Amino acid sequence: MGKQLGGINGPFVGRVGNAVGYMWRGQWCVRALPREFHDAKTERQLEQRELFKASVAFAGRLKDILRIGFEQPALKVHKTVCNYFLMVNKGRFVMDGETLVADYKHLRLSEGPVAPVAFTGVHEGTLPQEIILDFEKNPEHRNCNGNDRVYVAAVNARREEAVLSLPVYRRMGSITVSLPEYWDGEEVHLYGFVQDNAGRCSESCYLGTAESIESEEEADSLFHQEFLGGDTRGCGDAEEVGARGPGGDVESGGETRGGPVKEPGPQDVGGLDMRHG
Fold first, then answer.
1. Which domains does the chain have, with CATH numbers?
2. H/E run at residue 190
3. Residue 20 phi, psi (nearest 5)
4. How far lies 96's CA from each of 74, 85, 158, 194, 276, in Å?
5. Which of 80, 92, 132, 250 can pair with 103 through a Cys bridge, CB separation 3.0 to 4.6 Å?
6. For the segment 101-130, what is each residue's pLDDT rounded down to a tens digit?
7. pLDDT per residue over 226-236, tens digit each?
8. Strand, coil or helix: 169
9. What gap in Å lies between CA 135 and CA 173, rounded to an integer?
10. Beta-ladder partners of 102
């Protein structure tokens, strides 16, 4: 039995005839009562359900990243960040037996109008499994703020775990990400994106893989092989950055939304840890 709220013309909850009233994301909604459902459970249906189940679980492990990368566009279409992530990455997941396989090169972790940075090099940090990434601050010479925050997300393909770096300001030109020691030698995919003071983001950029790195020379070679030869969508023109050199129309000043951003240092690594037990 449905319950009337706010008088005869107000919203209601529960079933009234063939209608069902409910609240979703702060809005009162009405939907038709479902008709009789015939579950054929064909092989293709069962495969699709397994794919959907595994994809939702994967998105849930990236939730802390997606809350930054997709917060605003998801709100505009009244979706959760996980549902929005699955929508924009439709067709980029398949099942190989009982294992979820993702198209990591084309996976998107953020979306928005903010000017991107262009990642240009990588070298070892002072701690084990610590990677320092250099970036060109404004390769597209667009209007942007030097206090925009730059993030790097690392996703472990085998473990389906993720780590998000602490942010640095756009004007700093480099960022540090620290990987868990037990990830040593495993396939790890890196993504970079920018968030401005209003919470808007740039489109995420796939940077390549960062496996066990033995030396700075090897790290730089690996990075350029993966990044400069790969998908630079949203990262600016990586090959032209070296010729132009640093610079661009970057404005300084302004307050930072979401807390302070520190100068890079050994303590500013690791960030949010989204590993599951």
1. 43-106 (no CATH), 118-254+267-273 (2.60.40.10)
2. strand 188-195
3. -130, 125
4. 29, 21, 13, 33, 22
5. 92
6. 999 999 999 999 999 999 998 888 788 788
7. 444 344 445 64
8. strand
9. 5
10. 93
